[in-house]
Amino acid sequence: MPATDYNQEMAFFVDMQRCIGCHACEMACAECETNGQESMIHVNYVNRAESVQTTVQVCMHCEDPACANVCPADAIHKDDFGVVHSANTSRCIGCSNCVLACPFGVPKKMEEAELMMKCNMCYDRTSAGKKPMCATVCPSQALFYGTREEIERMRPDSVPVNSFKFGKQEVNTKVSIMMPKGTHQLIVE
Amino acid sequence: MNRLFRTLNKTALVKAAIAAVLVVIMVLIGSRNLQYFDPALIAYLIGTVFAVFGIAYRYSVWIQRPPTRLYWRRSMQFLFSRHFIPYFLRSIRLFFRNIMFQRFLAYRGRTRWIGHFLLATGCVLAFAITIPLTFGWIHFILKPGDDITYYTYVFGFEAGSFALGSTLAFIAFHGLVWCSVLVTAGVVIMMKRRLTNGGLIATQGFENDWLPLILLMAISLTGLGISYDYTFLGGKTYQFMAVTHAITVILFLVWLPFGKFFHIFQRLAQLGANLYKKEGSRRGMAVCPHTKKAFASQTHVDDLKKITRELDFDFSKEDGTSHLDLSPEGKRSALARAHFRARQESGHFFG
Amino acid sequence: MAKLPVAVDQLIKQYGPHKAYTPQAGFYGAHEPDKLVKTHCCYCGMQCGIQLKVKDNKVTGFEPWMEFPFNEGRLCPKGVQRYLQNNHPDRLLSSIQRVEGKGFEPVSWDRAMAKTVSEVKRIQEKYGRNAFAMLSGVSITNEKSYMVGKFARVALKTANLDYNGRLCMVSAGGGNKKAFGLDRSSNSWADLAHAEVIIVAGANISETFPTLTHYIWQARDNGAKLIVVDPRVIPLARTADLHLPVRPGGDSALFGAMLKILADNDWLDHDFINNYTSGFEEAIAAVKDYDLDWAEEQTGIPKEKIMAAARLWGKAKTSFLLHARGIEHHTKGVENVLSCINLVLATGRIGKPYCGYGTITGQGNGQGGREHGHKCDQLPGNRDITNPEHRKYIAGVWGIDEKEMPGKGLTAYEQIEAIHRGEIKGLISICFNPLVSLPNNNFVREALEKLEFYMCIDSFLSETARHADIVMAGSLHEEEEGTVTTAEGRVVKINEAVTPPGRARRDGEILMELAARLGVGDKFNYASSEAIFNELRIASRGGTADYYGITYKKIVDNMGIFWPCPSLDHPGTPRLWEDRKFKTPDGRAHFNPVPYRPASEVTDREYPVVLTTGRVVSQYLSGTSTRRIGKLVDQYPEPLLEIHPGLALQYGIKDRDLVRVETRRGQAEFPAQVVETIREDTVFIPYHWGGKHSANQLTIGNLDPISKIPEFKVCACRLTPLGEQVPDTMTETAYQSGL
Known about the structure:
The complex is a heterotrimer.
Chain A: E1 10-14, H1 24-29, E2 42-45, E3 54-57, H2 66-70, H3 97-101, E4 108-110, E5 115-117, H4 123-126, H5 133-137, E6 143-147, H6 148-154, E7 158-166, E8 169-180, E9 186-188
Parallel strand pairs in A: 1-8, 7-9
Antiparallel strand pairs in A: 1-6, 2-3, 4-5, 7-8
Chain B: H1 2-7, H2 10-30, H3 42-62, H4 66-79, H5 84-100, H6 110-134, E1 138-142, E2 149-154, E3 157-163, H7 167-173, H8 175-196, H9 198-203, H10 206-233, H11 238-255, H12 263-266, H13 269-283, E4 285-287, E5 294-297, H14 298-310, H15 328-346
Antiparallel strand pairs in B: 1-2, 2-3, 4-5
Helix pairs in contact in B: 2-3, 3-11, 4-13, 5-13, 6-8, 8-10, 10-11
Chain C: H1 8-15, E1 35-40, E2 49-55, E3 58-64, H2 77-81, E4 96-99, E5 103-106, H3 109-127, E6 132-136, H4 142-156, E7 161-163, H5 170-180, E8 197-201, H6 205-208, H7 213-221, E9 225-229, H8 235-238, E10 242-244, H9 251-264, H10 270-276, E11 277-278, H11 280-286, H12 292-299, H13 303-315, E12 319-323, H14 325-328, H15 333-346, E13 356-359, E14 378-379, E15 383-384, H16 388-398, H17 412-421, E16 426-430, H18 434-437, H19 441-450, E17 453-458, E18 470-473, E19 482-485, E20 490-494, H20 507-520, H21 529-540, H22 552-558, E21 561-562, E22 589-590, E23 609-614, H23 630-635, E24 641-643, H24 645-651, E25 657-662, E26 667-674, E27 682-686, E28 715-725
Parallel strand pairs in C: 6-7, 6-16, 8-9, 8-12, 9-10, 11-22, 12-13, 16-17, 17-18, 23-27, 24-26
Antiparallel strand pairs in C: 1-2, 2-3, 4-5, 4-18, 14-15, 19-20, 20-21, 23-28, 25-26, 25-28
């Protein structure tokens, strides 16, 4: 039943070092119709006392999502396009397992509503051939949605990386992060 | 077929069988060896027994999954602890608030809550009426010599009476009509949401989102049809109405353990989750080494480390700590710092 | 009588600011709007393209406008939330009048107009024509700017008309006119993407022009080196190749020293200097003693960094220099600008692809609004009101006798001073909130309280409007058609998405009726915004800011036209000076000698710390609109005092300690934000709030002698920690500007 004009050529690329911490993505995220004025993207200072560095985090849409694995209610589902969806509203029991297990710190627990919500890459827009709200408005293009060819042309000295290491765990994702040429994995210590 | 049997979960199978047998025994006891059982309802009975079997089976499989099993165990452990009384009272309160009244849905949207509350209440009341009738646990009789008083029997014991034609009788005999009205109103509200909300339109599916609503609507309308038929049409279309109603109800019962309606039973776990959070925070909070703020109970963080290991995720680090010790904000910052370092070492932030 | 009619809390209760949020399920009809209107953001000089969703004559949301070439859908948080200014509960739905002891009450248009006209006449008869003044703003369209200029001179017949661009980029305008004879950014932003070296001086691009960031990052992807001159590590500076943490007030010393290094190392374009410029020798002579040791002392920047910056700039083949309020808001703002231009001219990198220079205009129509005659010394087309030929031409266009045209009047801050002295008795303002935006605003308040009559045209009851006798309910950006000129000189079309709500009216209609009641209706007889624009085209014809060749249709077809555009077949001019024909009297670009001098108030034993002010990304100017939008308020709820841990240690100040900041003009209390991202001798406070949270209670009203811009960016202060830790948000209601 959902409109599926999902263009699988298009991909999501993040480069947090371009982020200027303006929160435009956060405001725009709330305009996405799948999450009704709730913002799913995270922007935060890394350590304001030291630096103005901010980080911006969308759901990375893991190949084997930790959130879905630890969900006691089978509420998190990854679809055929590789999009890991927000919790199934009828099943989610608001336990916060996913919030604490996600290595990227993405899911949000809506306390009163007893519901986890997370980024589904603006499914209402991407499934209709549009770009997600955050990547559309991002004035620094720290969030970029487009084809691999486009990003390789625009940022010739960087390479998209979609493999991460958290402790001993390797995590592979649908969303890529832009890294210096020659990098294959971002190791988070 | 062989494969099906091999993939069947033995524990669950045993539990489901026990549950189904228990129901049958209860029917036998409650109807006094089928003395008061209404044979016209046999199809409904079979459907219900099947539903019980399915629900018990699925529930059992469900709670065998590591995260669910842990929640289940912890809930029981915390409930039956020295805090039993406050936790029990809390659970009762939350049962009414969040299960019977689904108040948490109000925070997801007001009309959504109203819609869901109407259809859920309609369904629950309808079950409360039909299951005892189907099982033969309740029946009504007119005693010889008194044709204006109805006597109610529960499990074969007389449990009250009311006058024919009284308001109470009207309400009682039309109970299912009222349920149908509630369900229909609720379904209409929920369907309207699904037709107008852009986010829902984008993400909904037929089987999980529309079929349940359509099924509920069909049950309600055919049920109302039976009433309409004997009130206004003198039973001319009774056969048709009764058969279609039976078909929709049995479809519902058979689908109950497998489809969206299973969430009714899963929802109870919300009480456990609440207890888990409460007892966890009593035992002590985990403080994020990055933000220096408490973000979850230490029990929860420790349990998740175990669960993730069982699920073949290993977030532990060389120094004995774990990536899971960080709060969500801490994790995001850790990633950003790692990225910053990588960029810095390469000599270029851009390009 | 322009004191508050009742306690400010009562006014706030009725007229806000209140925070508006989108309902959880979106506004009614946002999913299926009646129409999507292509227009622009109402805020900064970038004028990003945006589509507004309209349902039942209400703006209910937005949809990115991917095709508009400047921003291709990109927006900042203000842009995303801009739609919430419409349909706002604080919106004035009818004109209101002051009632002593009661506040404000609705008043009919007839009564509001009649009262205003009778007061204009009374004051002008009693005290003279110039005793009635007008203040305007440049967040309004070209059409309105033009009409305000004409209205003041033809209907009010006063010389005292000025605008809030006076506290925006007039120093840049002054410098550009001296150097190039024309006041516009020399290039479109497209030239940024391939510049080898980019200097950003005193421009917090990442917070005040977020969508311009993309162009800078693009340039860096292409290998550009970025040099940021700013006392703070702004987000743009964090990853910059060079950050020069200049002490506030040290800009011209830095650029003077860099010019000397260019000359000493012969990193010069002699061909360009010899053939197309004048004044080079004098400019070099002025900086001959500015060696690195001296520069380090004056600017507080390590000399290696100054040298590195000069080397990068000197050796580059292409470059772009951008500046904004950070170097312009000084008593030597024009000199700072000229010292930048000297660097550009010395290397000859202008008028060529990927070689550029420009100020980044802050206000929505900061560029167009400063060209069409609502400055005190200016007539349309950037003509000079003291030039007899210019006067004659415009008098002809307006159909008046040249002798009747008033002469040059007072600038904005001088007007406030004149009100305070009792020389100006009556005031009309539109789109200006001086009580928040002008320096030393306790003085501004005193002045407002002395007015005999004050009429204000606005959509909300701003802090200044609270002092008005009559507030006429005007229109928002999306309620009136027109054009604006973006910071890169691109004239774009603003479309009417909805009509003004209730009994509010379009600003243009209000001015037309007032003019008619003042007896000059025949001069203000416009059938449409386009009719005004067509008159503006003629009025600007032959001036330096020539719009004659621009039509509404042409703007829409081309998604904007860059002026100058002197004829209908002219495509517009994205890049100036390719012909090397400068608009100065001698046709050459002018070097100007810039001897360094200190700020008007320097630190001493009594006031030992430098105070500088600026902006945050979630607020726009004085906040009349953005302090009413919930999420923007919540993002940065109250002004904080940014202070370096080193300085904080001296005073025993910890993060979130409440600190009293005092200057010779006033004092206020702010929670400390202890951060390493600011110079150790400088503290910073953003200025968007009014009342007791206003940073402009502290700033100084000293003006640049040429541009008359106030020195917002430097003054001396002292700090007293009050020994009180405050919670994360100390004052939830700072956005309301209570006293």
